[in-house]
Each structure stands twice: as C-alpha cells, then as structure tokens.
Amino acid sequence: MDEQQKVSADVEKAFEQGVGMIQPAEGQPAPGAQDGNAGAGVSGEELDTIVEQALDSEAPEAARSVGVRNAVEQFNALEVDDKLAVLYYLYEAMGESVTPAAPGAADIELTTAFFGEFNALTDGDTQLEAMRALVRCEDNTLGREYGKLSENNKLVIWYLLAERMGDDVIGMPDDYQLGDLGQQNLVHVKELDFEQQITFLRDVVNPMGHDPIERAV
C-alpha cells in the first residue's frame, strides 16, 4: 500500500470512528505512549504544556518551517470543498489534542456572535454554503464576525464546527472522495511535528472570513 492509499484509509477511519489519523514525526513518541494509551489523544503535563504554548501566543517563526509553509501553500491551492474536508479530517484527528489548551488560550465568549449567526442556519445546504463562503473569504455578516476574532478563537470556531458535523451541522457525505491533492496535503501535515501541525492550522484558518477594521482581542 503506497502512502496516498494509506492516508486515504486513515482519513476514512478518522471520519467513521473518530480515530486519530496524524501520527507523530519519526523519532517522536506518540501522544499517550508514556502511559500505555497511545492514540487516545494528548494526556500528561508535558503534552498539555506544548499545546498551551502553541495556542497561547503568536505562532513562533521556528514553528513555521519550510514544511509548514509548503503545506500551507498546498492547502491554499485546493478546491473549496477539499479545504473543508482537510480541516474536518485534521480536527477529527487532532481535536482531543487541541482542546486541553483551548479554554485557556481563547475567549469562548467572543465566538458567541459568530455562532449566533451560524446557528440560525438550520438547513444543511445553507450551512455548507456558509462554510464555503468563510473559506472563500467572502464579505458577509458571518465572515465579518469571523474576521473580528483572534487566531486562537478561529481555531476554536473550526474545532466546534467539526465536532458538530453530522449532528446539528451538515456532515461529510458518505460517498465523498478527497482529491489527490487533498490527500497529499494530509500526508505532508502528518509528517510535521505536533507544534508545526498546530501552526499549520493557525495559518490556514486565520485568513478566512472577512477581516474588518476593528478586531476583537
């Protein structure tokens, strides 16, 4: 099985069972490996500290390696629906790793206005179009509410959307096939270390929506 076939199987497993797709870079311990619970998400003080440091400040340039920049450029070249799919698969795989730091790194109250607008969209097709519009950086009410937020809150927005997909937010179609470029993008992100993966997510979600003049802190 080649690398693209493997990641295709991994993302399908992540979609169907919520199993983490992203593996640590070579030579790095898997999350939870120290306590015999590998693959069950981040646990332990050391990993929590890494997540907090990654989310609690501007992404350090040290984390913006050539690999991160290449992965971001590759993501930006994807079709809109493939971008949404990549975000979903990554959050499905990393969600449990991101959430321990999220409450301390982001002001959840600042997302209220965004979700006040989004939650009014009860039709699945309308929700999908709204998410597509965010990715396309369209200037609309939802995009402006998103654009006011900090990088950390934007990370939280997409985590919460991914968490709700298939419940009260339209989910991935059962027959959806991620394109070759999207699969290649997932392969590249998987090869990054954990902090670089967080930096990748920050760099791709931050420009989305429409950036107004005034920004919430």
Automatic annotation (TrEMBL):
Residues 65-216 form the OCP N-terminal domain. GO terms for cellular component: phycobilisome. One of its GO terms (molecular function) is chloride ion binding. The keyword Membrane applies. Pfam families: Carot_N. Coiled coil: none annotated. GO terms for biological process: light absorption. It comes from the Bacteria. InterPro entries: Orange_carotenoid-bd_N (IPR015233), Orange_carotenoid-bd_N_sf (IPR036917). Keywords: Antenna complex, Chromophore, Membrane, Phycobilisome, Thylakoid. Residues 1-42 are annotated as: Disordered. Belongs to the orange carotenoid-binding protein family. This is Gll0260 protein. It comes from Gloeobacter violaceus (strain ATCC 29082 / PCC 7421).
